[in-house]
Write a structure and sequence with these properties.
7 strands; 8 helices; globular; Rossmann fold; alpha/beta
Length: 250
Amino acid sequence: MNRYHGRVVAITGGAQGLGLAMATRFAAEGAAVALADVNGEALEAATRTITHDAELRGDVIDVTDSAQVSAWIAGVTDDLGRLDVLVNNAGIIRDNRVEDITDDTWRAVLDVSLTGSFHCARAAFGPMKRQGYGRIVSFSSMSWHGNFGQSNYVAAKAGVVGLTRALALEGARHGITVNAIAPGLIETPMLASMNGPARDKLISKIPMRHTGRPEDIADAAAFLASETAGYITGVVLDVDGGISIGSSIR
């Protein structure tokens, strides 16, 4: 498939995990890809990993800094000529019971996942409106429904859902769609570090009885960001093996 030929895709948190899987997918489909990440070493490694002869750009960016984000988006549009797709993937986890969450860890989680998504979307709206076309895909999580010991993360990811719906209304008349993906248990380094019994307990709650792959998320993002999904906006796509609808009692 070459459906992203001539398109420019910008991805935050793009140096590893889900971000790298999505970058690889978009590049394989012909897109020019701009990666942003706070980890410079991982960013350099990522650009070497993507081997589809795609035009690549990597920038060390802190999405919590609006000036850095604005400069990054401006640089991408100047360098690559346009901006068609923004993927808000950057996020962090600092889990704890509510009485043990400090002001700093509360702010850190919301600043990266929610405020960072806002900074990037605000910067991207201008060039997307001018060209009359855009796709914004932001990352929520199955946790946005509520999860024990994650009040900061849940608040951030629920906020992403609200932000997505509001931006979808603002972007619709300008040819901009705005959607979110809520991943379930995906095979990432964080999940791989979980011990056997805890991991098995979580997997047993998935109706499909297995975890997802980063490629499953990349497939979903590549669909929502495509021209084919042009009449879909303001939705949250659960990519979770059915865990958000509950498991069968049988």
